[in-house]
Amino acid sequence: MFPIVQYQPLRLITQNTLSSTCLKIMFSRPIAFAQTWKSWLSSHSLMGNKNIILMGPPGAGKTTVGRIVGQKLDCPVIDVDDDVLETTWNMSVSEKLQDVGNEQFVEEEGKALLKLSASGSVISLTGSNPMHAASMQHVKQNGLVVYLDVPTAVIMRRLKVMRVDRIVGQGPGVSLKDILQFRKQFYKRWHDIRVLCAGDSTAEAVAEKVLDAVKRYQNSESETFISTRASRSGNSKEKDSAKYFGDVVTEGLAPDGGLFVPENGLPKLSAEEWQSLIEATYVERAQVILERCIHPADIPASTLGEIIGTAYGENFTCSKIAPVRHLTGNQFLLELFHGPTASFKDFALQMMPHIFAYCVPRSCNYLVLVATSGDTGSAVLDGFSRLRDADKQRIAVMSFFPEDGVSQIQKSQMIGCQKENAWSIGVKSDFDFCQTAIKQIFTNSDYTGFLTVEYGTALAAANSINWARLLPQIVYHASAYLDLVHQDIIAFGSPVDVCIPTGNFGNILAALYAKMMGIPIRKCICASNENNVLTDFVRTGTYDLRGRRLIPTLSPAIDILKSSNLERYLHLIASGDGQLVSQLYNQLENQGHFQLQKELLAKVQQDMVAGWCSEEDCLAAIHSVYSTTGYILDTHTAVAKVVADRLQDRTCPIIISSTAHYSKFAPAILRALRIAEIKQNPLSQLHLLSSYSPLPPVHGGLLETLRRNENEGHQICAADMSVLMSHIEALIQSHFM
């Protein structure tokens, strides 16, 4: 037996203890700890008096893996089939199933498991145990449930070899594949930890992964965040000053003005683990990837699964969520506009509000501030308006957008997305002013302190400066690659390029993060419009705002000169040198420019190439693609298409991010397609576009929003910090007081 120690509860999780009576089943030949675990286990008990509970479908290898884990930890091993069910029933499992039938068997199995009382053991469940809620609640009270997640196709091959053609719960007319898929909902509900098991993984390798996963679960304090501007003095941090996922979601911006990043970087999945996701749905891929990026102490796996299911449910108009469509030649479109507000922002902002509501303390009200260049506004308003009523009472959102810097349809959509806890404010300036103003408000401790003391309200951010905005974007870049593999366009491991219309650098940064996590992306192509500061930066290493004025274009979501998330990328390539990042951004703030060192520029150019597109070329691309394929690109996707045509070398597929639905930019599309210029309202513009039977169709959700809220108004304010702050205070008084 390994020693019993006090079990440390994880953040936000309360662990209950089970009966003190232990079922002690000693392994016949105790084996010494594996050498790699000796040093760690000599000073720490992996689970103390808790059980490690292995769960998964039949054929996942639970029994064999359980025995190996038990040997490595020198602890009892309990196989529910052999040591619980057959002992209780005095007959074999197959005989019991034949005796009572499918439905009653699950109940009888559950009753037997309810009698189990074990401590400090490795328990291998049956494949059907998770279908009985009461018994799972019972065993979970004193244990950690580890899900051995094996691809369904692999399980079916294994069962065929084992000559198993039917399993518990499989009724007449139900295929083995269907029942295996049906059972996944129960595994998703009960697991604390997921271990991805590739088809060719040995039991020994899976056992090591189980131990690694349990160690990660226990070592929650290792997954901390730091500011991109934090100096690394080498001094140990005070425990209470460490920032965890929930903290950075709540705070948004670091106190020193930097952005939060994981101190130890993002996790990397092996090629085998990525390949196990080829057959998975988008939601399944999202849960696996985000479980690796968010410690279960911050959001338990089951809760995270509920959030993901809510985010990517019926509010997306395409069942594939982010489908990949062939465009022409070696070019593919990643369609990111099937969410409720018709832009890629929905992928983060249908999820982030629920993450935020889970993480923030309930003892305080929160006002979420966001600056938008167009698409973020409607997405953030829609996302936060979908919170539960109780959460809407304590969490509100205010979106600031350039009054004359977004399309008329974008503005109408933002106005239409206003709800009881969500408001839009037009500002008589550009996006850069809105974004800078919000940053200044967050770092004004006197003002934020006043709001907290006077109104019991804290401010939070929902722009891509918030880490919870970036994480969901990693998923769709990874998923797009896996879709190309699934469609037999490429073999896993073959490279692809990605081309992304880029303004604030969040979307392209997510692609770079996906590459870090193991997706074989060769080059990220940064596509700019006439506000091409990023193109110049990638080519020269100079970020220069001197003498630049923002140019309003037909692709307003990337009409940005100060790209916030570039700071996270610089911190990454500078190997976490926060002092250097701080110097660069102080110089940008004070002098309007900075220059990268040669070695850093070389790293940038290893990751990226960049180009820009004129207004004329953007419109020409929309017309050309429609003429040859019948497909309509939005203006931002057209920018990316033009740049991709110029910069790709055609030696591998290129995935172009289609970041918005063309419906949001109807006047520009009508102009590009050389349809008569119209002066009608946004709703009339969409009806005119729809009459041409375009591909894809006009976005129904956008059409409905405009139809429902055609005559609503919004507030407008001057480009003055004191005016913005007075609007914030007035909103707090009206909603929370």
TrEMBL record:
Known pathway: Amino-acid biosynthesis
GO BP, sorted A to Z: amino acid biosynthetic process
GO terms of molecular function: pyridoxal phosphate binding
Assigned keywords, A-Z: Amino-acid biosynthesis, Pyridoxal phosphate
GO CC annotations, alphabetized: cytoplasm
Domain Threonine synthase N-terminal: 238-312
InterPro entries: P-loop_NTPase, Ser/Thr_deHydtase_PyrdxlP-BS, Shikimate/glucono_kinase, Shikimate_kinase/TSH1, Thr_synth_N, Thr_synth_N_sf, Thr_synthase-like, TrpB-like_PALP_sf
Necessary cofactors: pyridoxal 5'-phosphate
Modified residues (N6-(pyridoxal phosphate)lysine): 345
A Pfam family of this chain: SKI
Protein family (similarity comment): Belongs to the threonine synthase family.
Protein name in UniProt: THNS1 protein
Organism: Nothocercus julius
Taxonomy of the source species: Eukaryota, Metazoa, Chordata, Craniata, Vertebrata
